[in-house]
Design brief:
By secondary structure, the protein is an alpha/beta fold. It is 41% helix and 17% strand. The longest helix has 29 residues, at 327-355.
């Protein structure tokens, strides 16, 4: 594998056995350079083994099929992800492979596993390759792996992997001062676990780029990655620029709508709903993220306040599973909760109206109300009637082209200019949400001047859960990228999923459509415009926060470059001292946090904890009924719990298989049909898995909702299969 001159210079310290971060721009071939180091590593070390870690499932197959495929001529290369059958026997697969490409979570699970045949040690690898290592911070899986590494290193353990990181944009970690940016780089270098040059092994991080706001300084980056140095192609800068041309940046700014009667009508409806709910302190800044946050808080308040009524002398004892709130309390709380939900939908519509078309905002509301079938509840009746009263007016306003979004006029002009009938343009329009990506595609298809075979567009969004639009599966993502790569498609409307990691061919047009992000996202998106004479557009409102943030990002990029140069020029003794201090502080912080978590989880005895349905408030179980399966699935083992829920028809389908269990049907509250989770068939035993966000947790101290089970204040035992079978089926094992 031949490397360009700047690539050889950048990885030279790694080939000499040193830990370092390589800083090269997007498209400069960091992955290719890493594969070269992997080959040299395996050729020079008998019994060497490489693990390539990624943070997204789709990157596993991408690396295996693209650059790392070159290693298959001489080495056993295996790809393992959550969608792979190899995951079930990961430890065994590792020991039979020379190169394993996997998600970081799979390795972390193996490192902490208590099962002997499933457990791995860091010393089972001589080379770790960490993709997108800017995620080595806070609670990220990369950081958990590297904290494990640093604890062993500082404890004196030998034979630990050496570390190399590759990055297009380390960022400033949210710092706006030169000193803060330097600290950000140093911490990350230390986190990758620098080892002495004579120890075997090497740890490589691909495409690193620390996100602003991650809470990690530049010096912290060096410490987190435990690296000796950060290298770049300073002496080969002209060669880099010849291979990675920089796009021309252009600001296309538009003004606010002169009139927005559709948006004003939505605000009038929202004011009427707020009057109905009778809470005078509600904000009036409709159509903002701040308003959405306040409404989410209101919704949560409505979900837990009824419990206080019971505990303060309402109907029935507070822990009586058959008791409920008084009619007055239940009506008040339900009104608050339901109105908050509807206000969120109206706020969503205002945000959509601001971003794309009025008709998209109207359709969002109409689809929501088409699903509201609860005609018995007076609050739902009022809200549905209110929408019906305004439906015709809103629909008429939504179709009035006089009030078209000025941003769309700008976008139309850009696409008309660059996508000519006989041209060969290829572009990506980055937008904030999945909803807006789909709306932009619909707008394109409805715009006569953009219709025709010269623009062949599709949507590319993430695979995670969303309550607004259906997520794309990994296969759907790969299909779209394949069509884009071979030219069948030439335009994508994409969320941030296409900013980093994905192997997407060079574009000559990249549009940032009304986005306000950090300098890392800006650089990643800009790096997609790698064709000759490419243009990077910033499309936003004039004098908006988006424009201000983009200008700040440009300053932060310059600050980042200065900070990296300063770290590169730092005397070795001073550098090593700072890295050591940052690493020791990081380990101390980690230990203190673990102690606090352990203390928090012991605050209440599980038998004193009650779980209430988040919607109707009925008490359904106690904390002592909960167990964990495989350390992650929280199930209820009380046989009588089945009396409280209904099972839907049709099993939930996943794209992958699991070792000891398979998914069952969705389960809902027997009283109100609120979604609770799903059933699982674990070793032929049917168990209900509960999603904590669908419950209000009541302890002797408070009543609140949780987003994650890890945050609850009572201990949860591991599921004992033999004990459960003995207690449930009355057999001795």
């Amino acid at each position: 594998m031949e490397l360009r001159g700047y690539q050889r210079d950048a990885v030279a310290p790694a080939l000499r056995g040193r830990n370092c971060i390589v800083w090269l721009p997007t498209g400069a071939g960091k992955t290719r350079a890493a594969v070269h180091v992997c080959r040299r590593h395996l050729e020079s070390r008998r019994g060497g083994r490489v693990a390539v870690l990624v943070n997204k499932v789709h990157l596993v197959e991408q690396h295996a099929e693209k650059e790392f495929h070159a290693l298959q001529d001489a080495f056993r290369v295996t790809a393992v992800s959550g969608d792979s059958s190899h995951k079930v026997f990961f430890a065994s697969v590792v020991k039979q492979s020379d190169v394993v490409i996997c998600t970081a979570q799979i390795l972390q699970n193996a490192l902490v596993s208590t099962e002997e045949d499933a457990r791995l040690e860091l010393t089972d690898f001589s080379l770790l390759v960490i993709d997108e290592c800017h995620h080595t911070h806070k609670e990220a899986v990369y950081n958990k792996i590297m904290v494990n590494y640093l604890q062993r290193k500082l404890g004196g353990q030998q034979e630990l992997p050496q570390v190399l990181g590759l990055t297009a944009s380390p960022g400033t970690g949210g710092a706006t001062s030169f000193e803060g940016a330097v600290q950000h780089i140093l911490q990350a270098l230390g986190s990758l676990g620098r080892t002495s040059p004579n120890l075997p092994g090497c740890c490589i991080a691909l495409g690193c780029g620390l996100r602003a706001g991650s809470g990690v300084s530049l010096s912290q980056l060096c410490a987190n990655l435990d690296t000796d140095t950060i290298t770049s192609a300073q002496e080969e800068e002209q060669q880099v620029q010849s291979h990675v041309p920089e796009p021309r940046k252009q600001y296309d700014l538009c003004q606010e709508r002169v009139q927005d009667p559709f948006g004003e009508r939505l605000k009038e409806v929202m004011e009427r709903i707020q009057q109905y709910v009778e809470i005078p302190s509600l904000p009036q800044d409709f159509g903002t993220q701040v308003y959405e946050q306040r409404i989410v808080e209101l919704e949560s308040k409505g979900e837990v306040v009824w419990v206080r009524w019971c505990g303060a002398g309402g109907t029935g004892p507070p822990y009586d599973c058959g008791a409920g709130p008084s009619p007055a309390a239940e009506m008040l709380c339900r009104r608050t909760r339901v109105c908050a939900l509807h206000l969120r939908k109206y706020n969503d519509a205002l945000l959509i109206n601001d971003t794309v078309r009025m008709v998209d905002a109207f359709q969002c509301l109409q689809q929501f109300y088409d699903t509201r079938k609860d005609t018995k509840d007076p609050t739902e009746q009022f809200l549905s009637a209110t929408f019906e009263e305004n439906r015709a007016t809103l629909q008429a306003l939504a179709g009035d082209q006089r009030y078209q979004n000025p941003r769309l006029d700008k976008l139309e002009a850009i696409l008309r200019e660059h996508f000519q009938p006989l041209g060969a343009s290829r572009g990506i329009v980055f937008t904030k949400t999945r909803q807006s990506a789909h709306s932009l595609l619909s707008w394109l298809q409805d715009t006569a001047t953009l219709c025709g075979p010269h623009i062949r567009a599709a949507v590319l969004t993430g695979a995670g859960y969303s309550n607004q639009t259906r997520p794309m599966t990994q296969n759907e993502q790969q299909d779209v990228i394949k069509l884009f790569r071979n030219g069948t498609l030439n335009l994508l409307f994409s969320t941030s999923v296409a900013e980093e990691g994905l192997d997407i061919p060079e574009c000559n047009i990249v549009v940032r459509y009304g986005l306000m992000t950090n300098e890392i996202a800006m650089m990643q998106a800009q790096g997609r415009a790698r064709a000759e004479n490419s243009v990077y557009f910033v499309l936003a409102k004039a004098n908006s926060r988006e424009v201000s943030r983009e200008l700040l990002n440009e300053e932060l990029v310059e600050l980042m470059e200065r900070a990296i140069r300063a770290v590169q020029a730092m005397p070795e003794q001073e550098y090593r001292l700072q890295i050591r201090e940052l690493q020791q502080a990081a380990i101390a912080t980690c230990l203190m946090k673990e102690a606090r978590i352990s203390e928090r989880q012991q605050q209440h005895h599980p038998d004193t904890v009650r779980l209430h349905c988040v919607n109707c408030g009925v008490v359904v179980c106690c904390g002592g009924d909960i167990r964990t399966v495989e350390g992650m699935h929280h199930v209820n083992i009380n046989p009588s719990f089945g009396l409280h829920y209904r099972v839907s028809s049709g099993k939930i389908q996943f794209q992958r298989a699991f070792k000891d269990w398979e998914p069952g049907c969705r389960i809902t509250c027997g009283e109100c049909s609120q979604d609770w989770g799903m059933e699982m068939l674990y070793r032929q035993v049917k168990l209900p898995i509960l999603c904590i966000k669908n419950f209000v947790v009541e302890t002797p101290a408070e009543k609140r909702r949780y987003k994650k089970w890890s945050a609850v204040t009572f201990p949860i035992k591991a599921f004992d299969y033999v004990e459960y079978c003995s207690n449930t089926y009355g057999q001795s094992f």
